Here is the input.
Amino acid sequence: MTIEKRKNIRRAMRYGAWIGIGEESPLSGCMVSDISETGARLVLENPKELPEMFNLLLSGRGGIYRRCRVVWRRDNQVGVQFQKAGASAQKEPSGKEVEPASA
Here is the structure.
C-alpha cells in the first residue's frame, strides 16, 4: 500500500492546456492529468525538452495561467509545482494583469 505524502489532495481530470515558454516560442499543447492547489501532473509528447520553469495556460487566450516549476519527469509525464505570485494579481504573458487562477 502506498502512503500519500502530498499536503493537498489532487483531483483527477483530463483537461487540455498549453505550455508557454517565452514570447518568441510557440505554445505547445499538453493534458492536465491531475491537479491540486499546489501542483499538477501534465502529459506531453516530449517532457525532456521542457525547461525547469514555464507558464501553464489554462484558458485558450492565456488569461488564466500558473507559473510552474518541474519537480519530476517520467516517460511522457511531468510533475509541476505552482509558484506563488508576489501579489494578488499576476501578469499574463502579454503583460496584462489578471486575477490568479483558482485550482
